[in-house]
Amino acid sequence: MKAIVYHGPEDIRVEELAKPTCGNDELLVKVDACAVCGTDLKTFRHGNPRIKPPMTMGHELTGLVEEIGCDAVGGFGLGDRIVMATSISCGDCYYCHNGWPNLCSNLAPMGFSYPGGMAEYVVIPGRALRNGHVIKTPSMKAEHAALAEPVSCGVNSLSQTDLQKGDTVLVMGAGPLGIINSCVAKSLGAEKIILSEISDARLAQAEKFGFDVLVNPATDDLSECVKAHTNGLGADVVIIAAPAAKPQEDAMHLVRKRGSVVLFASLPASAATIQLDSRAIHYGELRVVGTSDSAPWHVEKAVELLESGQVPAAKLVSHQLPLDQIHEAFRLMASGEALRAVVKP
């Protein structure tokens, strides 16, 4: 079979591999779409110490069940379309026992610990089935189903807040995940979405989603904009989807008292220390929280939002390419031309 294989930084190859075999407690899935995410691009550029090469890449995958092991659990049938919460939990650690499988001490992600979905076939490990990481989807286009994983991260992000119907949400960063967070917030009842972004090209891409306010903080006063749209109070929820320190620092002054600030985007390990105004947090009784990955129930909600059109997959999937054009997918992402590129076997 054809697969995209990671060998090291700047060394990702399209190779012919043997078709994998299905173990007794596993599923064999014929992949028909795998979205390319920022982690994949960073892995290509800089490598990833969590991946031991050679490794088939891809975790935003979907496909149809082709073979079912005799001991596989979950009630799946031949031909079922599946998606995944692709960072697979162990089911045994403190975090798993407390209902936080995305924070598992022994996470084993697809494309990192197990061969991923940028291939014609993928084996779904028994551990994923036993711990509920595989979700059957209704009938939808493959390239849309492949968005279930990134959308689930947005669902987890918003679940960290006290979002109420009628709230105003500020999302900082209009890349693919900023737009996804904005769509999820709208679907969960936010009345007004303010989306900030320093790239005019990214703002132009966001126009088709119909958010209430688009603002470029490089040319306009973001604080004044937020105040103007919140009766001077500040946003009820601020989500930082831009991987930069300044938005994280500024957010404490853009949220209302007792509001929520979600640090969605991660900063590089070498530049992860930021300065926060502790007085704003203290006297404003702010809730500042991180969010990481997603759990199976977040994926189930993501599938619901995609199926209903509340998250408009057709607008998010900007490019579809065959597997052997993975480097073109990376180019489209790096240039900002792509919102979500999907590779198809």
From TrEMBL:
Pfam families: ADH_N, ADH_zinc_N. Coiled coil: none annotated. This is Putative zinc-type alcohol dehydrogenase-like protein YjmD. It comes from Novipirellula herctigrandis. Its EC number is 1.-.-.-. PROSITE patterns: ADH_ZINC. It is an enzyme of class 1 (oxidoreductase). Belongs to the zinc-containing alcohol dehydrogenase family. SUPFAM superfamilies: GroES-like, NAD(P)-binding Rossmann-fold domains. It comes from the Bacteria. InterPro entries: ADH-like_C, ADH-like_N, ADH_Zn_CS, ER, GroES-like_sf, NAD(P)-bd_dom_sf, Zn_alcohol_dh. Residues 8-343 form the Enoyl reductase (ER) domain. One of its GO terms (molecular function) is oxidoreductase activity, acting on the CH-OH group of donors, NAD or NADP as acceptor. Its cofactor is Zn(2+). The lineage of its organism: Bacteria, Pseudomonadati, Planctomycetota, Planctomycetia, Pirellulales. Keywords: Metal-binding, Oxidoreductase, Zinc.
